UniProtKB/TrEMBL annotation:
Residues 610-630 are annotated as: Disordered. The chain crosses the membrane at residues 20-41, 103-120. Gene3D superfamilies: 3.40.50.1460. This is Caspase domain-containing protein. It comes from the Bacteria. Keywords: Membrane, Transmembrane, Transmembrane helix. Residues 614-630 have a biased composition (Acidic residues).
Length: 630
């Protein structure tokens, strides 16, 4: 029987014997990384501070900053300046770079290495027939493949400086200037001298150092606190210490600020350079100071008021150089003896009518500065400002369509009445379909022995009264001749203080009541588009209104206050405003002054004087048309 020989499986005993160490090596290779260090030469050279050689040094005063009106101090530092020479060298720095394996290359290399080791240590290719030398070469080749794949690493991030550096060869030298505080003895003191032209203000005054610094408060040392605006002579300041000296010429503008100072009380500060009442920001008292900005060369100075530009008349102020005191509120603006416009309830939170009325015009006459001191109305300009504010904000007028005429003489008033265009701002032609007309008069009125009605101009002369007054009938005729959609006439008058005909008996007052009634009905009778208000009946005092607890007298009369308060409270028609006045003025006059004051109204009670802001522009008919289209 023939023997059958079976081929055995490849002998892997050598591979299996070495398998675990090989696997461990593979894992270490796969996950391990490495770091390297290198020295890199910098592009720039570095100086060797140990090679410092002093070339020269000097001591001197140096000014620190410049004086200003807000900080009028001249500051000087006493310094030592040194010129030193240093060697320059190339510098190399050490950097650390981290690497990690390229895992694709490593996997491929480890595979090749495994195959090589497998072939060299198994019987697959009859490795047992290989010589020891051949087997060693094959194993070495396999390991070389693995090592090559491992060491083909990639850098991780940027190289990090190790903080080590080395100086290389010398490349040259560099000279450097170094400035430090000069050394001074504890009791060191300089001398100060200040001259202004030929005047010696300070002569060799001791000035102590504070940590190598001198501080000269110019106004304090010189004694100059205020100069006339035309005085611009500079100061010559000299500071000396041993053989060292500092000289400087300081202009006045470097330590003083230019101000305007009010020469009298109650000076208006305005938002624009124009003599109108509705641009007054406040009234300043005497000796108020405002920082000066520019001279407008037309009678106005531009000034600074609470951080914003404002305007003031040149004739009411003086310009000065003065030390600026930033601790003083608003540069020491003295409060006037009356509150600022906007402080009172009736002057703020005005109705805001977004429906502008481009075809409406308003004329405000405010007569307050009467030549006869008994008849002066000190708050006429404020009343005009209040009226203008309401016509603009509540009635929707353009500011350009509101004219304020203050302190009108008889000739001014007659010309105003006779000139038809006076009642048409800018020559605007009034339209019966589109134009509303507002007229407000604040001043005195009276009736004569014949019960005729007159307005009192500011140049009224009691000694020549026959020629110094203006007929209300002429004004009424001029207003009545206007072609307007509506007309509002407000006669905010005082009768009793303007009485010029002696004692008034009850019969005369009744006659004057009748005269006012007849003339008023003549103006409004038969006109559905007219409303006329009088502040009081003839012979009655138009008394002042008082503030909280009746202790503070406001700059408005009772009628003025309640007329505009009614609009502020939302009343729109002439009848609503009239009823409001009848409820408040007589009662308040009796409570405050224990006397009667009865406002008068003539005209159409249903006339709408203030547009309703809640209605869409164009009115109810236009809204109805829009709804029908929808």
């Amino acid at each position: 029987m023939q023997d059958i020989e079976f081929n055995s499986m490849p002998d892997c005993s050598g591979f299996y014997r070495n398998g675990f160490p090989v696997a461990a090596v593979l894992l270490i290779f796969f996950f391990a990384g490495c770091t390297t260090t290198s020295w890199v030469v910098d592009d720039e050279t570095a100086r060797d501070y140990d090679s410092r050689t002093v070339v020269s040094d000097s001591v001197y005063f140096q000014q620190s900053g410049a004086p200003s009106p807000q900080n009028p101090v001249l500051e000087l530092d006493f310094l030592l300046s040194t010129k030193a020479e240093y060697n320059e060298h190339l510098i190399s720095r050490r950097y650390i770079q981290q690497y990690r394996p390229r895992y694709g290359y490593l996997a491929l290399g480890m595979t090749g290495m495994g195959i090589g080791l497998y072939l060299a240590n198994t019987s697959v290719i009859d490795a047992d027939k290989l010589s020891t030398r051949d087997r060693a070469l094959l194993n070495s080749a396999a390991l070389s493949i693995g090592l090559a794949s491992y060491f083909s690493m990639k850098p991780v991030g940027e190289a990090r400086p190790a903080g080590e550096k080395r100086q290389l060869q010398k490349t040259g030298t560099i000279v450097e200037h170094d400035t430090i505080p000069a050394e001074l003895p504890e009791d060191a003191a300089a001398t100060l001298s200040i001259h202004r032209g030929d005047s010696v203000l300070v002569s060799d005054e001791n000035l102590a150092f504070e940590e190598n610094r001198l501080a000269v408060n110019i106004p304090e040392k010189s004694g100059l606190q205020q100069l006339d605006a035309g005085d611009t002579l500079s100061l010559d300041i000299t500071v000396s210490y041993e053989e060292h000296r500092f000289r400087s010429r300081i202009p006045v503008s470097d330590f003083m600020q230019e101000f305007v100072v009010t020469d009298s009380s109650d000076v208006p500060v305005r938002s624009s350079p124009a003599l109108i009442s509705n641009n007054i920001i406040r009234h300043a008292g005497a000796e108020s100071r405002f920082p000066f900005l520019t001279d407008l060369n037309d009678g106005w100075f531009r000034i600074l008021k609470s951080g914003e530009a404002a305007y003031i008349q040149k004739e009411k102020v003086s310009r000065v150089w003065r030390v600026a005191d930033v601790t003083e509120s608003d540069h020491l603006v003295v409060q006037s003896d009356r509150p600022v416009f906007g402080d009172l309830e009736v002057e703020r939170n005005l109705p805001d009518n977004q429906r502008t009325n481009p075809d409406a015009i308003a004329v405000i006459i405010a007569n307050g500065t009467y030549e006869d001191p008994v008849r002066i109305l000190p708050h006429a300009d404020r009343v005009a400002e209040l009226a203008a504010s309401y016509f603009r904000d509540a009635a929707g007028l353009y500011s350009d369509n509101i004219v304020i005429l203050e302190d009108m003489s008889r000739d001014d008033m007659l010309q105003f009445i006779d000139d038809g265009d006076s009642l048409k701002i800018g020559g605007r032609h009034l339209s019966a379909e589109e134009s509303d007309f507002y007229f407000y008069y604040y001043g005195h009125a009276f009736t004569d022995e014949e019960d005729s009605l007159f307005l009192l101009p500011v140049d009224y002369d009691p000694g020549d009264r026959e020629e110094r007054y203006v007929s209300f009938e002429a004004l009424a005729d001029a207003i009545g001749a206007l072609h307007t959609r509506s007309s509002l006439i407000v006669m905010d008058t005082d009768w009793s203080r303007a009485s010029v005909f002696g004692q008034e008996v009850s019969g005369e007052i009744r006659g004057r009541d009748q005269a006012v009634d007849e003339l008023s009905r003549k103006l409004t009778g038969g006109r559905e588009n007219t409303a006329l208000f009088w502040a009081s009946e003839p012979g009655e005092i138009s008394g002042p209104y008082s503030g909280p607890n009746d202790r503070v007298q406001y700059p408005y009369d009772l009628f003025t206050w309640y007329f505009f308060k009614s609009i502020q409270d939302g009343f729109r028609t002439a009848g609503e405003i009239s009823d409001y006045l009848e409820r408040n003025v007589p009662f308040t006059s009796r409570r405050l002054h224990d006397r009667s004051q009865n406002p008068l109204f003539f005209g159409n009670r249903d006339l709408i004087l203030i547009p309703d802001t809640s209605e869409p522009e164009g009115g109810e008919d236009e809204q109805a048309d829009m709804e029908s289209l929808e």
